[in-house]
Each structure stands twice: as structure tokens, then as C-alpha cells.
Fold this sequence. Notes:
Blueprint: E1 12-16, H1 27-45, E2 50-56, H2 61-70, H3 74-91, E3 98-101, H4 105-120, E4 124-134, E5 139-140, E6 146-149, E7 156-158, E8 176-180, E9 188-197, H5 203-212, E10 214-215, H6 217-221, H7 224-227, E11 234-235, E12 237-238, E13 255-256, H8 258-277, H9 282-286, E14 292-298, H10 302-315, E15 323-327, E16 330-332, E17 335-336, H11 347-352, H12 357-366, E18 374-376, H13 378-408, H14 418-436, H15 440-461, H16 468-489, H17 494-503, H18 538-555, H19 558-572, H20 583-587, E19 591-601, E20 609-614, E21 619-624, E22 639-643, E23 649-651, E24 654-656, E25 659-660, E26 662-663, E27 668-669
Domain TRNA-binding: 585-683
GO molecular function, one term: metal ion binding
Subcellular location: Cytoplasm
Amino acid sequence: MTHEDFPTDDPAVVTAGLPYANGDLHIGHLRSYVNADALTRGLRKLGQQAIYVCGSDMHGTPIAVEAEKEGVSPEAFALRHHEQYEETFPQFNVEFDQYGHTHDETNTALTKEFVRSWEDNGYVHEKEINVAYDPEADQWLPDRFVEGTCPYCGEHARGDECDEGCQRHLEPGEIEEPVSTITGNPAEYRKREHKFLRLSALQDHLQGFINRVEGTSNAQNQPLEWIEGELQDLCITRDMDWGIDYPGEGADDLVLYVWVDAPIEYVSTTKQYSERDGDLDWESVWKNGDGEVVHVIGRDIIQHHTVYWPAMLEAADYAEPRAVCAVGFVNIDGKGLSTSKNRAIWAQEYLDEGFHPDLLRYYIATASGFERDVNFSWDRFAERVNSELADVVGNFVYRALLFAARNFGGTPDARVSDEVETEIAQAMDDYEDALNDYDLQSAGQRAVALARFGNEYIQRNEPWKLDDDEAAPVIRDCVQLVKAVAVLLQPFTPEKADAIWSQIGEPDSAAAATIGDCLQAPAGEFGEPEELFTKVEDDRVEELDEKLQSKIEAGSSDEDDEADVSEESATELEPLADERVSFEDFQDLDLRVGEIQTAEGVEGADDLARLEVDIGHEVRQIVAGIKQLHDLDDLPGTRVVIVANLEKAELFGVESNGMILAAGEDADLLTTHGDSEPGTKVK
Length: 683
């Protein structure tokens, strides 16, 4: 592994967090897989050898629980979903070089090799612990077979994770007031011998790793709480039948914890690819470190990939990854995606509506930075498809190629102007910089910006008013711009980029082109183009919104509805404060109108955003807890009301000089009805 800029001489292996084989895919799932796919394609554009590997996560208690409900074996249940994923991913142009699953022979054998290496290297020990037990069912209760109270925050939690509270991973025996999910009865704790990986002995290594690893800031900062604190050893065995059997002695009735064999699948699929294709040596990458391993994951599994996984690799004498990129969640209409309430856009549902997969790929890969949440709504989707893909890219490509085909039969015989050559070269540099920063949003938007320049260029030069000799250099420039747009846009809209490639008469496909082809002369002859994108009309958006709302209402139970009503009522009926303040005290507050200039997330903080706000006299830096409640990219230009004379504070190491006023739990930002200028005092 190097930390040199891409492209490097070593091959890159890009992975995505394994999809858990227990349900249908929705657009929240797709974000990780589309981003990893786009990153892989983008690296190839830079000339980097790169493969994309993944697989279905087949083990663990959730699958065992759901399989039992259906009355089928866990293997049959998981394989059904695995096969569904294999069919679904290609429909969104997500192309894995190797896709396997954790229950196959390769991963089973390699996982056991890992564990034996841990034992040989002295990183495994046995310890007696409390394990929940259901006397009525006469069964041990690992992970999600038990629920109770989180010992850290007091919220309701599953046996392996505080999913409703602090999100902390929970070890066996930690959960308080345990209840069996099998019978619903209180569980009891019984002593049991289990195997542990000595994370505590690897703490120095992990502290060094977190300083070396590249990727997103949340992946670098979130693990510090564990790595710099007292690191607890990881229990690597479970009392259940479904999983990979523990390979050592004294654990004949135990299987390995799902988070042991799941990340090892990254190595297994690389090995399978290596053995099938032969152009990459998996051992050179994973054992010798002669490779660039990049993990793209959801932010809910950062701890597993920046604490457990590098420890597992080091304990088995494997190389560490180069980067961990943790993506944010996908919200629906400003609210968290909820499959239980049907507030979700399912992958198949999107396809059934007749939309091209590249539209969604572009939306979710470029709507925000890697680590920020994406807020999906049908009107936002339509707005970006219409204004960026149809009006900018589609419009430029069509008008430029139509003029070229009708007037010149293809690319005119002329040289590219210095202006256009400079613009394309700058786009290439910006694109390469963005990919080296793992910034897909900027890379994708730079491709669209180049098409926007093309529209401005053709409009400025008006070739339809020129004779052929005068128009030829202009159209030659435009065809070169079209070719460059196709190259740069290909990782995000692979099918549509191939369509452009075909329309300009280029051989092969846009996938085979590298960034250097942006300035290579286009093919000589081509016919009239077809339009690339169809706009999403307003009535179509209304129809889709109605379907979504009807689905959410149908999916909400009476209890959900009552809970929602109660929550709203509690907000509306929050009692007024009894204690009054004087008019003089109120006058002491300096309330001002401000205009947000920039907005970005605070590193390491899930809820905080750093804003730069123009308040007339100066630009203030203000930290506000709105990161999960607003699309930060939409905030610049918004006028808000701030408290300007609040004492300065420091939040997560960032100074906050003021306070943004907002209403309610959804942080509805307070602003003015008219167009008051920044700095206007609120009285």
C-alpha cells in the first residue's frame, strides 16, 4: 500500500460493505454500492488498475431469526436474497469484478485460516462470560435473540447493538434486563466459555493505523473514542448453529461471530478473482501490501472497519487498507428512511417506474459529499435530472452533434482552440484531484460543468450564423468537449456515456477510455444523434409523491399513527414558560438577519454543521445542530435570524460565534418574510 496519488503502480481493490442477505434492496442500500462502483470506474479513468469486489453477508442472528419465522433453513433464506442481489445490482450498472458470499467454500476456508493465525500469533484467549439463556426454549440467546436496555445510554437495544440509542456495539452479557425474542420471557444470564480476539494487545497498532488511513473524516474521527480509550477484547464466538464453525479446540459447539467472516469476504472475493482472471495476485495485495485497498461503507459500520478489521488483519499478518470512506444515509423527503413505515424507495420500485438507472446513480453519487446524508425526494430528483442532465448535458451534446452531423457529416477538419483545450485540461486536473480526495460529488459535477461551459461556448459563438469555414473551428471545439464530457461522466452514468461515445463514432466503449482521451481527436464521421435524457414532468412528480405518501400511510400501523400524533401534539402543546423576562432583558439580545454563505459538516460530529454567515458587518462562523435535518448544499443563500451577542463556544474543536434560531425538532430555520439585508436588527 502506498499513499501516493492515484494512479499508482500497485493495483487497487475497491470494496463495498457486504449487503446483509435478509431483505430487499432500497436506494439507501444502493448509495454505498453505486459510490464504490463510481469510484472504481473513476480510478480506472486515471489509468489505475482497479477491481471492485463484494459479496452477500450470509451469517448472523438476524438471518437465523427471519428464517425461523419463515420455517426455512438459514442457508436457503440467505441464498434466496443473495441471488436477488446478484440480479439487482447489474440493473443499476453496478458491476462487480467478483461477487461471492460468506458461506462459500473460499470464505469458509480463509476465515478458518485467519483464526488459526490469530491463535498461532497469541491473539486469542478464552474467557468465561455471562450469556443470555431462555430456560423455556432451552436455548442460548446470542445477539438479536435477546433484547433489553443499553448499559451505556439506557435506551432499548438489541443484544449486539444499541440501535435506538448510542449506536454502540454490545458484547455478549452486556445488555441489561434481557428478554428473549423467542418466547418474550425474561432471560437469565449463565456462565459460558467463549473465545476473544486480543484487541487490547493491538491498541498501539490501531492508533497508528487511524493516523495513516485515508478516506472520509468521519471514518478517521469516529473510532478515536474506542482506540484512545480502554480497548475491550472482541468476543469472536457465538452459541448458535448458523455460521462458520470455530476451527480450534474446545469450541465444538460454537460458531464464529458474523463480524469475523464478513470482512474476510473482501479477501476471499479478491482471491476468487485472482484465481479466475490471473491479472492480479491476491496475496501480493493482501499479505505483502502491494495494493491499494479502499473500503466504501455505511457510516453505521465505521467501528467494524476501523477497529475490528485492521486488528484482524494485523493479528493474521495481513496488510492494512489504504482508505475507509463512510457514506451518509439516504433520507426520504427530509425524514429518515424507515422500512417498517414503508418510507423508502425500493430498488425494484424505482425500476418499475421506468426511470433509467443512470439517473439515480448520478443523483445519489453527486447530491452531497461522501459522508453527508442525501435527502431524496421525487421533486429534487426531477429538478436535478431536468436542470443538470437534460438541460445541461443532454442539451449540449444533442445540439453540438446535430449541427456537426448535418453540416459536416461528423467532426470538422479543424484544430481545437486554445480556450477549449485549456478548459478541458483544467477539468481533467480538477477531476483527478477530486478522485484523489475521494470526492465523487466534485468529480461528477465537474463533468456537468464542462458541458455547461460547452453550452455557453456554442451560444456565445453562434455557429448557425456563420458560414461553414467560420463554423468549423467552433463545432470542432464542441465535439471535443462532448468527447471529454463522455469520458468524465462515465463513472456516474455509464450507459449514457456509452451512448454519447457511440454517437460520436468512437470505437469500443467509454468504459475503456482514460482521462487522457479527453484531448484525443474524436472520430471523423458520425450521424445525427438521439436525445439522451427525457425531462421528468411536474405531473409525474405529483403522481410519484402521491404513491409514496399512500404507501407510507398504508405501511404505518395504528400504533405508529398514534405515536406520530402524540409526538406532534406534545410539540404543539409544549407549555409556555411561567417565568417572564423584562423588556429590557429582551432588548439585550442582539438579533440579526444573516445570510448563510457556506455550510459543511463538522468532522466527527453526526449532528453539527459549520456555517459561515454574513451578518452585514462581518462574516461569522456558527456551529448548529442541523446536519441531519437539512441538506447542507441547499443552505448557501438562505437568510436566517441569529443571536449575534451570544458568548462564543467551542463544539468538537470548532469555535461558534453566535446562534441560528430554528423552530421545533426538525430545526425549521427562522427567517424574515421580506428581503431584509444581512445585518438588519430584529426588533
